[in-house]
Amino acid sequence: MSIFMFVLVVALFLFFSYQLYVRFQLESLDSDSPKMKRKINFYKYQENNRSLLFLMIAAIIFCLIFLGILYNQNTLRKDNKDLELKIEEIKDARGETSGTEIESYKENTLKLAEFPWNKVVESRDAQALDNYELQLIRDWQPFFGETNVAIMISQKTETLTLSVFPTALTYSDFQTAEKNIETFIKELQSVKEITIIDFNFTYRDKSSKLSKQSIVYSRESKEGNLEKVALDK
Length: 233
What we know:
A hairpin with an 8-residue loop joins strand 4 and strand 5. Helices cover 56% and strands 16% of the residues. 13% of the residues are buried. By secondary structure, the protein is α+β, with helices and mostly antiparallel strands. Keywords: Membrane, Transmembrane, Transmembrane helix.
């Protein structure tokens, strides 16, 4: 649109410069002959009418362009507003927005040991694995907030590694989620397929500074228990 406007303005400038030049040349014409004077005056009259017509056409074109710009800006504002509303709808659908407080987990609320972990280990289909991860995300979200879950399968040992990524937590929510881990691990002790589970938190500390913390549990063998791993800070 801006390039078109520039070209149009240049074209109109050149055209009216030419008209001004013609007008200047006409004004310089003169003659002692009455007949020639009448011809010159008649030609000036025609040029005046033609110039007036061109000015009217140019004014109409500028008005149409101006109206087009206003319409375009109004359409953009409306599209931006619609986009903002759609983003809010997506946040509500996913979010249960960040203002929702994380729940304290009561033992056996989700019956974690009854999740089909053995089928997850046997899964060789990427889509099926994605579905298991999505189910865990939906089930665990009330207790860890906005979360992503990744499952890695060791076909050699037929074991699982779970990585949980809670994000955008307040400090209060982080404390609640941290306590929920203990109850989750207690339930998952009997799930021998899981040999490693790590929680990777992103949260705001007491001073609202963005912080990260990882909490890892692992078992040395299927017969052992999930134990908290001491991480270097």
